[in-house]
Specification:
With 395 residues, the chain is α/β, with parallel strands linked by helices. It has two domains: 223 residues, Alpha-Beta Complex (Spore Coat Polysaccharide Biosynthesis Protein SpsA, Chain A); 133 residues, no CATH class. The protein is 47% helix and 9% strand. It has 15 helices and seven strands. A seven-stranded mixed β-sheet has the order 3-2-1-4-6-5-7, with helices on both faces. Helix 1 links the parallel strand 1 and strand 2. Helix 10 crosses helix 12, helix 10 packs antiparallel against helix 15 and helix 13 packs across helix 15. The longest helix is centred in the C-terminal third of the chain and has 38 residues. The protein is elongated, with a radius of gyration of 25 Å.
Length: 395
Amino acid sequence: MTPERPKTLVVLWATHPVHDLRSVVEGYLADGRRVLVVDDGTTDGNFEVLSGLPVAHHRLRAPRGRRDAILAGAALARELGCEALLTTEADNGHDPAIGRLLLEAARGSWPAVVIGTRPPETAGVARLPPGRRAPSRFWIRIECGQDVPDSGSGLRLYPVEFLLTRRFVARGEGFEVEALVRGAWAGLPLLGVPLAASVRSGSRPASAVPGLTERLSLGCLHLLLIARTLLPWPHSRMVGRTRGVGPRPEGLHPLRFIRRLCREHATAAELGAAAWVGIFIGALPIIPFGIVTIAYVNHKLHLNKLAGIAASNLCVFPFVPFACVEVGHLLRYGRLWSEFNRQTVLHEIHYRLWEWLLGSLVVGPLLGAGGGLLTYALVRSMRRSAAVPEGNGGP
């Protein structure tokens, strides 16, 4: 049986010469932790200062990012019989007692992924406009349905088994996002531990502007995770669903059931995203299956199903379908469809359906973007005037 406070290996990632590395390591050793120092291969002198200390060290052949450092630590942790991995950068001169805080948070919920959550002023979040405060937080909620206030924090506690049994794609900053999503898919609770403002988490502040390459990499990662979310087969789970946890069936209480549907996933951003999904799918030539498809996609993406179905009414026949056919005809022939007769409407209906599909791939996203932004603005305005806070439980 796994103990409530699992045996832990501390992984310190050294990306440049660290002057106080020895004192940091000595602090963790005094706290009774095993320590692994990982060097990304770009610096020298980090290992020399550790002479005489019972510390494992590993040097990467080339700078490969945080993923390889953490996975190398997980492999060593398994050899040492450790169940948990505490990750942080080597230049975080914080008190090792913070590691005990993360372990304490996992007590009774292990295995779990525990994140050291930075306050907004430390993470640089408070200085950003609302729309840019936590883009990864929004996508993580869509991909796995769990809310993570600080997805960029590098101070984390991972189960070793989880790291070694999952295949990760991202290497750089995206690894921390992917690890959270795949952890939630595996059934692991994502727990946050608030950190003091003076604690550095070893991650880039949220106010830093990512480069174009990093943005493209994160965008591709989120597309991959969303695509996997939409697939119908279940995820491989480490932790099964706890019996007795979750909402009770409400088939005998239809009013309560409808009220819960209205309130779930009801932040302004989530309602805007649900409206976009509803309009985009509503524009596709799948009229008999439109409502079912919208409900399925919004359920898988943890969006409000009723909001998506309601927004799809904007694609009422024949206005939006006709616009899609016109755009599709324009894409095929370079001109609008202007011949309306028995031949073009009935005998060539298969061509019109093909043009409807082509046009919907242009009209649907554009019309959905307008509907989603309008929904977001209206919800924000109404809640601001009514002083209603954002949240899943909001009206």
